[in-house]
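Recap for those who missed Tuesday's class. We walked through two folding examples back to back. For each one, the amino acid string is listed first and its predicted structure tokens come directly after. Nothing is annotated here on purpose, so try labeling regions yourself before you check the end of the notes.
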Amino acid sequence: MFQMPATTIATQCHAIKASSQSQRQPKHQRQRRSQRHVNATSTSTSTLTLLLALAAVATTTAAAAAAATAAAVPVAAASTSNAAKPANLSGYGSSSGSGSSSGTGCSLAEFSCSNGRCVPLSKFCNNNNDCGDGSDEPRFCTRCNRTYYGDIGQTYSLELHRPKQDRVPFVCVLTFTAAGGQHGDVVQVTLDSFTIGRFTSYVHEGCPDGYMQIAESARTPIGGMWCGSSWGPVLFYSETRSLIFTIKLNRLARDQSGYNFDFRIRYKVLSKDSSVTRYGGIKLAELSQWHNRSSFLNPQQQQAQASGSVMEDFTNSSGARSDRYGQDFSLFSAYANNKTFMDSLEKPLPKDEHNYTEPKYYLGDLIPGTYCSRIFSDCDKKPCRLQSPNYPGIYPRNLTCYYAVRQPKGNLVWISTQETSATNKMAPPPPSASDKDKKLEPRLKTWNDCDYIQDYVTVYDGYTTRDPIILKFCGGGQAVPAAVSSGPELLVEFSTSPFGTFTGTSSQLLPLYGFQLEVEVQFVDIQSPTYSKNKKPCEFWIRGTGRGILENPKHSLAPNSTCLYHLQGMGVFKTFDHLSLSRRTSSQSGMHQPLSRFKVWISVLKFNLDPEFGQMDETSVGAIGVLQTQEDCSGMLRIWDGTLRDVPVCKDLNCANEPSQGYNSLGHYAHNSTNVIARFCRGTIPRTCDRSNINETFARPCTISESYVSSSDAITLELRNTESTVLRPLDFKLKYEFIDLHQDGLPQGGGELDCNRKFVSSLMDRKDPAIFRSVRNIFLFGRGGTRHLKCVYRFEALRGERVRIKLRKVTTSNRDCYSRLDEDINRSFCYGDTNVRVEIFERPYSDSILLHRGCVCNSSNQSHLPVEYTSTGRDVEVHFTAHNMTTLDDPDTANFEGMFEFVKAPTSCKDGRRKFGPSGTIDMTFGDVSVKARHEQHHCYYMHSLLFQIECRSRPWLIEPSNGNKFLYVRLKAIFLSKHNPQKSLNATHLETNSWRCETKSRVVLTTSEGLTIVACPLSPDSNAYEFVEIFSSGWNERPNFALMNRSRAISVEFLRPSNGEYSFNWMELVPRPTLSIAEDCQFKCAELGACVNASVWCDGIVHCPSGDDEAFLQCSALMKLPAEILATLCLIFVLSCCAFAAFAYK
């Protein structure tokens, strides 16, 4: 016969004695003792426990906790482990496991009484005769070492009584199992009242008097312990089918007036589908109702509700109703059934049983051999959630979990962890909450503040614990800031201390415990300066000729990090330097190119360093302004004028392939000549151009006083932070631009803002065609603050040379302008808005005026390009003009590119074509020179001479007035073809119908100093056609305009492609007739012109006035020049003679 050990018999005897004593107590005494426990629960002040950022346990009354917990929709873990079978202990425990199989009709969660009744397993051995026949209260029964089951929708209570002194040490094992189906998938245990010994430390021997351990079935026990006191509620949720509670009490309190053991719980089983807080999958269609608030109403209220008097205020909402984070609103018993409140939180959506407001969460893959470490992948395609073990319940002690998030290779991602269900996500306290209660609310703590409890979460910027730590936090009650990795890998480490206790808060709402972090994957550009491929160091190289916006790194930076931005201007095309200017160029004053081709222009648009984490919540708005005036350089931006280290060979943004040079800090850059030109800290912001943040396109340009310009071709930005940017964001935004100071050719004046250049043939060793481009210095354009721009590019040829200009690319955006080629004269003219244009001018003689020879603009790529012009003189100028520029005008919207070449030309022409005087007539005879050339012995020489003579023919005639107060009038016999006036928007007048009347390809071009150009077909003086073309000097039709007094009044006359024959034109000087009637009129005048002319043109045998008055008989006859008396006498004699002749004839 099996003999039990003496110790076991003694233990059972003590149990019997204790049980008998308990039964002998009157029922009303037991009720009063229970009532004392409830009162103690409702009036005690909870102690504060920090359960990781993660977990803070709320204090609440037992009644409120019961109501809230009964309505909770908890979380279940996906586990396929088999349900543990009911324990068969002490002989009488077997009934709990055989109830359903014995044919009595009791379920697995019920105890089968001897009289055939079924009672819940939790009522076994509870000192109450629930069966009626006492079969549920056998002798020597105990609640320990048993397995408890339940049915979905039912809540069970369980209490362990304080053991006697002679039963210490006391050990009790309770197993709660969800058997699947009606018996649930997840176990929820609510700790209503808990006291086990004393709690002394989180790390070393923290539970000397006793402890509670919680383990999961099919997982290795981790040995963490709970002790101390708590007045609940505290929730536990299983991740497997079973939760195993081990309670051990080593000693009782010496002071018998108090006690150090109290253990009262409630448990229930839940289905996985309803566990939306952990698993997600919240459907639009509400789940079936399992909680009805009317059960808490008194009979009068139930009757009133049944009559429909309060149906408007309350509705029987499903307990599974949740917000977007999966948090169950039914936890808040005060609002769960309030229809108005629930409608204000969530807008009604169309119901569809196949749709979800939030999909099922992906909780990672458990690493074999670990308790809670998981691997996450493809989070860009899955709703990944990082959850603490047993979330949203209390997590185990003595635990370290690793959550590794990794994207497949080849993907460039940012992984941000952002809290979705907070550590202690509670509703705001009631309005009547006191300041003292607010101070007791849990707060998020970071870094060294987590060393006391040692429950914390650490986020690594990488896949190993050797990577930089970007965040370490603990505590609760606040949202966790987003932590963003710098690459496709992220590691989250969760550690808990070996020992722990339960504390609460002033909130009367049931909290969630642990943490849940959402993982978001974003694909980024590898060449973006906001993404660093190198964790150490954080360094960027930005080189080129453009501009851009530079912002702070979009990923999180670890404490004491330094990011360097090296901005350096670098050319990408060949310049005029390839022409190999002669060495004597450098000896000339003012001919030097700048020491550096580029400069860097920095305009800081924004700089912000947030206050210390959590400070904003405790600082009033008025105090913030005071704090911002104090300098805080925990995070700062410094601008260095120059480079901090040698430029690497690589051309990558990050220079990831550059061999390591062994630098980790700025100490490597100690021996350099750079200096700090600006430092931005919190409360100290030297210069900003923040108005560009409002409207960057149309905002007034940033001035030099609002920005920074380097003295060389490089600037280095240093971003330093002593705290993690997760908790204290450090933001900046600035515009940078590489100013290209290079200009082709030689300077005419001096200074960086002088864009006038010259190209001298005598200083060039090579005569082949070369490229010249417009200026690219942004400070000369509208976006750099300049309103008007005019650059002159002068080309000086040697004697016997001419200049050939070819404009092959012109851009004048932001204005409606185009240019067309006049095929008669092969010159280009501009039409439309000509505020931005490129013009070609020629100086026929070294001291003469510039004559307009073409205009080019192009805003829509419809202009005729390229445009080519070969000069007839040695000096040519190209003018690049831009008026009324705006912030939209820069070197990219207004520019040109052309080529120039010095070509051979006649050394000199025989006839001089520069004329002065009050009047004159030019007679030209063009013969067939080629016929004469055939009879020459040296044919090649004379062919070359022929070409030079043809060029001499095309040289312009320059007619200039004798002084600046007189105008010119030129008239020739020709057929008018077209007129181009750059001073008017329409610009041109064409008479295409006259072209057929012109029997020759010869053209005559008359040009004023303002660019007014008239094209005509010249006629021979012997021609019967009465066709004349005339032109006046500049300013004739604008008089009196004293602002134009200094304008040149010369006129150019060109004969292009002259055919054989005779041609002529004449000119005369004009003076405007007096406009006042009292003024004396001039003696010689052309009435139709309204001008006074010189006396020399009067009656000279050449018609100058259009009406011919200057050569009329009445004006030019010799008789008309006699005195009046003689003329009168002669007239009388003539009349008398006529009368006498008539009388004689009559007779």
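Example two. Treat it independently of the first, because the proteins are unrelated.
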Amino acid sequence: MASVNPFNVSDSDEEAERRPNETVDTERSPSEGAPGPPPGNSFSPSADGEPPTLLLSGNRTSPSGEGIQFPAAATSVMAGGTETRVSVDVIAAQLLRDQYILTALELHTELLEAGRELPRLRDYFSNPGNFERQSGTPPAKDQVIGPGGPLNRAGSISTLDSLDFARYSDDGNRESDERVAESEVPSQERKNFKTSPEIQEPIRPLEKRALNFLVNEYLLKNDYKLSSITFSDENDDQDFELWDDVGLNIPKPPDLLQLYRSCGTPLSSPRSTVDVSVAVDFADLPGNCTKQTEVVQELEYQISLLNTEKQSFAEQIKKLQRFVFMHHQHNITQLCRNSNKFSFLWGFFPSLFLFYYFLPNTLSPVFQQTLLSFCRMCPDSRLGAEVSRIADSEESVMLMLGRCLPHIVPNVLLAKREELIPLILCTACLHPEPKERDQLLHILFNLIKRPDDEQRQMILTGCVAFARHVGPTRVEAELLPQCWEQINHKYPERRLLVAESCGALAPYLPKEIRSSLVLSMLQQMLTEDKADMVREAVVKSLGIIMGYIDDPDKYSQGFELMLLSLADPSERVVSAVHQVFIPAFAAWTTELGMLHTALIPSLLARIEKLLKQGDHGLDEHKLHMFLSGLQSLIPPLFAVVLQNAPFTSRAILNGDIPAIEVTRFPRPASPLQDVATIIGSREMLSALLVLYDHQLEHEGTTGWDSLLWVVNQLLPLLIEIVGRINVTSSICVHEFSRFFWRFCRTFGKIFTNTKVKPQFQEILRLSEENVDASAGNGILTKATVPIYATGVLTCYNQEEDRKLLVGFLEDVMTTLSLSHAPLDSLKASFVELGANPVYHELLLTVLWYGVVHTSALVRCTAARMFELLVKGVNETLVAQRVVPALITLSSDPEISVRISTIPAFGTIMETVTQKELLERVKMQLASFLEDPQYQDQHSLHMEIIRTFGRVGPNAEPRFRDDFVLPHLHKLALANNHQVVETKRIDIAMQLFEAYSALSCCFISEEVMINHFLPGLRCLRVDMEQLSPEHEVILSSMIKECEIKVENRGMADAQGSMSIASTLVGEDAKTKFLSKMGQLTTSGAMLANVFQRKK
């Protein structure tokens, strides 16, 4: 056989194509030997077979030191010439096959420099996948899996160069691989670079993330918790709970301590071995050795008999095979001779047909295995084993999924991971191993780092399906621990998933766990979690728990949870309480019979206690909290009244049942507060309502215990509580008005007219006896009046209802006016009703009644009520109804009535924009100021100055400059000549407050020089004699105004500026503010400075 020169290389690929049989494609390097067949694969070569290997040289050695020789077939092919040229492509294929990657790279580089590019090498080195490690089972020690098999290369201890950086991170973003492929660097340079102490390779991003993970793990294990927290905060872009977040496709390495202990361990050196044989002296064996020898001999005899029987069976099998072969041969011969299609071929190739239709199994097993080894089978790996082992039963499918899913999930994009949920859940349901099920459920809850709403809903749906399938025991044992582990997770989306899971799984948990462990988990999250959306989900889950709880001892805990949730600072949490928790808790207390015996009385007791403590200042937030909770209990209470009525058993769904009016009930805050939902259906509710109205109207409440409790205990207590409220607290009045409105609308018109109104009317007897004029603490001066007017009388808006409301307000206005009582209750009624435009006409009707009343006291009250109504009424009504009424009152014979109209005129100047109206009002105010009959009216001047100070900052600038400031100047000048000291000091103090409020307005230079500064100087003259502390402030204001006027002369283009902005000197500011703080006069005028012009 001629020798082959490996350096005699062909320059053309065409020459290699003409000799295709010179190469044999093999799968493994010679140093590996023949691979053992995977289990169950009949096509894998046997372990004894040696796959044929093509060698380029007879004396070339593999990296393992074994010589590589040509097989006989290859030798015979090459023996045709004395010297055979081998193509470059053959050499490249052999180098890649044997994993001589660096040699192949050098060959590729030299070919490129020579201007010749080999496609095989170009495709190989341009494909990054050839240098990626397979995910899954970690490689063996000192091996890195290459594209064609294991790459025998020792991993570096001091660097992480063997790690695979080319993968997707857990965030779904591709981490940039910044390292240079080691295969592109000569091995000697690489060795020198890594071993040189002076050269330190810079840390790579994924190396840094891996080391960060190990350092954080070390800090946690050794109780450096504060350091760990600080370290986590400084690396907030990394999740230290999941190794997969690092971004490496390798299992988690050992901890730092283990790495430290093993870093100095030297590699074990090869040692010489000696074969030693050991002999045993039978004389030294125990006495029972003889018996064992006899047993062995008996077994050997049975083996020989079985071998004989086996040979007999083998001969019979061969005879049967020959018989079958002859039978098939006869049939095929007849078929071919009788068929026209095959008769021609049968005459020439009868043996070919017989060989094609029936191939006798005469090949040896070794030859078969060797022949089949040329198939390109998957190398021996985890994935290869899974592929070759096809599942043949449901259990084996579950086992396979349990093994594969942990390797699949990390490599799926985050945006598509919810597609794996059905597969994970199905496997977790049916997998026989508890440990594997736990791992799969852990993967489910950690599938997405921060799941959004849709992803959480998908996971929850899967959890519910899992719970339905496996039952309460496994839900408790397998799902709840996953929730408990993530109760304090750093991401709120994960804690939100836990909170929602507790509610979704409530129906499928054992009742003992529901009322103990799950309830405690949710209570902990409600009190400790900082995220509003998590607490909102907790409250909803608590409501679901309350719907399934059956332990009466948990009532007190549920009540405290309700109060705790109502006190939450987040509006979305409080909204969830009213929508879910309170209806569910009320339904449970209804089953216990504690709704009207414990729950509602407890809230009323807390409201009473709060009002008793309100002498030093009422906590309006707590009152709103308790009252809103009580308001959410109205629908369940009405349902209890219907379900425990004497007529409940007579309710029949058959027949013509009238539909429920859309406006019959107030709009519920949630479907759980819908009375129809509580009762069971709208048909049943409609039937019960018909019987309910009939019972109230014709038969009464005898024997109706639940309704009697509402009428005889609840209503009197509520009315008593209302009488204790401070009428000046608009928030409290509004909250109780809303409560009574919903209460009356829910219980119906007949109930309101026959049960609610009579109790209020009995207390609100409209007579002077009900008004204590001396102390002002009669029932008509309390909040009962506005709450009855706005909460009860406005429930229904028919004509008779409106007449009743108008009559009540007229009577209250008349009674309070004639009794000289405070008007706070009437004002509160007008404010609350005036917020709704529906009642503007009605209120104007009431006021016109006061305008034309015979008593001047009533007319004065009506004039003052116009001031409250003007702000909310549209300008058309102001022009048509308000201004005519005020002008009528301004010409009243009584001076007190005329003075009472001034605040209303001022409010019109502040809010109305129609020029005609403003001129009419201006003329009326001018008549008050310029008419000689009012020159000595001290009360009128005080009211005008107070009104100017209140509305001046928000009025039209032209009205302020042309009317307000000039008349204030006149009033200040006239006050200098006032001889009555008490009147002089009253006017001076009122002017000081007015000027203080107007000083923050933009005033033109002309008005400032002609009116504002002269008015201040006149006022300073009064203050020098009456109040020196005010005189200091006025002097400072005058000085700064004069300076500003001088500056304006040099910069007219800057326009008018605020007097307040002229106080630029720090000394002047400090002096001004300190003096203002020493004053004891009211600051009401200053408060209006910051109101915007409407």
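Answers for example two:
DSSP finds 48 helices and six strands in the chain.
The mean pLDDT is 76.
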